[in-house]
Amino acid sequence: MYTTVTGNSVQEAKQWLCKNELVAIPTETVYGLAANAFNAEAVQKIFSVKQRPLSNPLILHVANKDTLQALVTHLPDTAVELLKAFSPGPLTLLLNKNAKVPSVVNAGLDKVAVRIPNHQLTLNLLENLSFPLAAPSANPFGYISPTSAEHVYFQLNTKIPYILDGGFCSNGVESTVVGFNNDTPVIYRLGMITKEDIESVCGVCEINKNHVVTESPGMLPYHYSPHTPLIITDNIQEALQNYPLQNTGIITVSSLINNVPVSNQRCLSLSGNINEAARNLYRYLIELDRLQLSVIIAERLPDKGLGTTLNERLEKAAAKNILK
Ligand code: TXA
Ligand code: MG
Q: Which of 25, 88, 274, 294 has the most CB atoms around its CB within 10 Å?
């Protein structure tokens, strides 16, 4: 049990991490639950606090390309191009790890996931550390990823000593995980960077369908789920006919719905801006989940670019109900 403190001191975050304790860190995507990646016991704590299966590998966070390169055996040419185009940023690369990285970090696999987050406070912290940070999203396993320090506090209060508060995450959805088939980039998890973005740099990009569906060996097929049952629909008016309006939460793409109490409604972006929608999605899911409603109905986004990523997150969040 800890008295969880929220603050913006890089020094304090560093002190805890150097003692092999966990610290929640801000990134441009979502908050991470970080530990000294070179210390297996510290990394184990991440799995126990999150109640995450050890079979689900973590992402290493580093400050720059040199540090990244020092953790892997080889960097394909396309990886170098992608780093130039998107790092620091929401790009996670799957690369062959070297002996410096303990196998608990990546579930004993050959590849390890590495990224350079684009958040100044966390970059300052990483520059002050002599080790990389292993960090999954800072939510209990299966729940919605936090996009503010307050979300982390709500979910992990007493479980960790320190939350480094870097404000609301500017992107709001996780990084894109990219592996390589020889030199061809392969998306293992859709994220902020789209397939089209990668194609614009590398000319080609494949999607690993199996991985996108199952995410990782041993993982449940649902994820990102609120406690409240969630339904995703193309026709929100029609879906609403089956539920009592007073006790139903609504997430719409770009307009509000008459008859549903305003307090139960969240519109992702009134101007239809997809980046704003991404920034708001988890925040709104968390807000509505706290209202103890009987159901949340979310409108599917236009299925292109970042919209495809957001729909995939909503589908996974909704999959929990189907399994029940
Ligand atoms: O934006 C993000 O990526 C955030 C912030 C905190 O950096 N992190 C994050 O971590 O979303 P996490 O652990 O919640 O998700 C990591 C994803 C999982 O889908 C995991 O299966 C995949 O990356 N992954 C990690 N290492 C892998 C590996 N060696 N092979 C295949 N997939 C891997
Ligand atoms: Mg996660």
A: 25
User: What would the DSSP string read from start to end of 137-181?
Assistant: BSS-TTBPPP-SHHHHHHHHTTT-SEEE---S-SS-SPPEEEEEE
- In 3D space, the residue among 136, 141, 145, 224 whose CA is nearest the CA of residue 177 turns out to be 136
Bridging pattern class, strands 176-181 and 184-189? antiparallel
Ligand 1 atom with the smallest distance to the CA of 216 is 21
215: left (phi over 0), alpha (psi -120 to 50) or beta: left
Query: Domains along the chain?
Result: 5-172 (3.90.870.10), 230-323 (3.40.50.11030)
pLDDT at 222: 74
Closest approach atom of ligand 1 to CA 189: 19
pTM of the model: 0.96
Q: Is 61 helix (H, G, I), strand (E, B) or coil?
A: strand
Q: How sure is the predictor about 213, in pLDDT bands with cuts at 50, 70 and 90?
A: very low
pLDDT digits (tens, 9 = 90+) for 304-317: 999 999 999 999 99
Residue 205: per-residue pLDDT: 97
pLDDT at 209: 79
Amino acid at 259: N
Show the ligand 1 pocket: residues with CB < 6 angstroms. Answer: 27, 29-30, 32, 56-59, 90, 92, 94, 106, 109, 111-113, 117, 135-137, 174-175, 177, 188-189, 215-216
- Determine the residue of 216, 223, 225 to mutate for testing ligand 1's pocket, defined as the one with the most ligand atoms within 8 A of the Cβ atom: 216
Index of the ligand 1 atom closest to the CA of residue 111 = 29
Smallest-distance ligand from the CA of 26: 1
Q: Which atom of ligand 1 is nearest to the CA of 92?
A: 3
Beta-carbon contacts of 65 under 8 Å, excluding residues fewer than 6 positions away, are: 83, 87, 116
Q: How far is the CA of 184 from the centre of ligand 1 (A)?
A: 20
Residue 53: phi and psi, rounded to 5, are -60, 140
Question: Beta strands 23-25 and 32-36: pairing type?
Answer: antiparallel
User: Which token pair is 293?
Assistant: 């409603």
